[in-house]
Amino acid sequence: MALVSDLLSWLQGLPEPGLVAATGGLVFAECTIGLGFLAPGESGLLIAATTANTPSRFVVLWLVVTLCATAGDALGYAIGRRFGPRLRETKLIRKYGLDAWDKATSVLERRGAWAVFFARFLPVIRTLTPAAAGTSGLRFGKFLPAAAAGAFCWSLVHISIGAALGEAAKRIEGALNTGGLIVVGALAAVTVFFLLRMKKRKALAAAEREPEPEKVP
After folding, report:
1. How large is the average pLDDT for residues 58-70?
2. Cα–Cα distances in Å, from 41 out to 37, 116, 130, 136?
3. What are the pLDDT digits (tens) for 153-174?
4. Rounded Cα gap, residues 169 and 157, in angstroms
5. Angle in degrees, 0-180, between the axes of helices 140-173 and 41-49, rounded to the nearest 10
6. Gap between the Cα atoms of 184 and 176, Å rounded
7. Are 45 and 27 a contacting pair, CB within 8 Å?
8. What element of type H or E holds 98?
């Protein structure tokens, strides 16, 4: 029984507009302050990307995800601009990302728009940076191009990975029986779980190692 092939065929058979819209919605939610801790945008994108088996599907998903990620960042920026430093004292930030918020703010003060671009690739910090940018006073004219460029590159990388994984899974399945496939699938799930945990820990550790800005006497 071709489990992976059947699953991928089912995903690829779903109406493309609905699948793309759902993926864009998850990414948008992840990029908005607060929702990034709840919406599995990155995981949903990787799963949806396994359906990008034609150039047209790849490009459409890429463009929609880029636009949704940029729009989510812009909304996060607007929230930060509206509420300012009070956001730091909210229950959500204090529970999930107080240290990450402080580091994001510190890096933004020193690196400006470059911090917005590179934060796109860092879990947790990615969710907090847009609002922190709005709070820090970074001009929207500098924020938006950096956010759009980061979303453009981030979505390209993840969709490429997802598409490659989908194709590789089909090829591997041809050489395995059902029992072997289940074992490999379980091992892959465990590996992905620990890789994601390691990625988040490294991102937080990198943020903690950022030197504090020098104080002007």
Report:
1. 93
2. 10, 18, 16, 25
3. 999 998 898 888 777 655 655 5
4. 18
5. 50
6. 9
7. yes
8. helix 98-111
pTM of the entire structure? 0.68
Residues ≥6 apart with Cβ < 8 Å to 156: 62
Query: Quick check: helix, strand or coil at residue 26?
Result: helix
Mean pLDDT of 83-103: 70
DSSP string, 106-174: HHHHHHTHHHHHHHTTSTTHHHHHHHHHHHHT--HHHHHHHHHHHHHHHHHHHHHHHHHHHHHHHHHHT
Q: How far is CA 182 from CA 46, 145, 169, 188, in A?
A: 20, 44, 12, 10
Nearest to 80 by CA among 147, 22, 25, 21: 147
The model's pLDDT over 4-26, given as tens digits with 9 standing for 90+, comes to: 455 555 556 667 788 888 888 88
Contact 76, 130 (CB under 8 A): yes
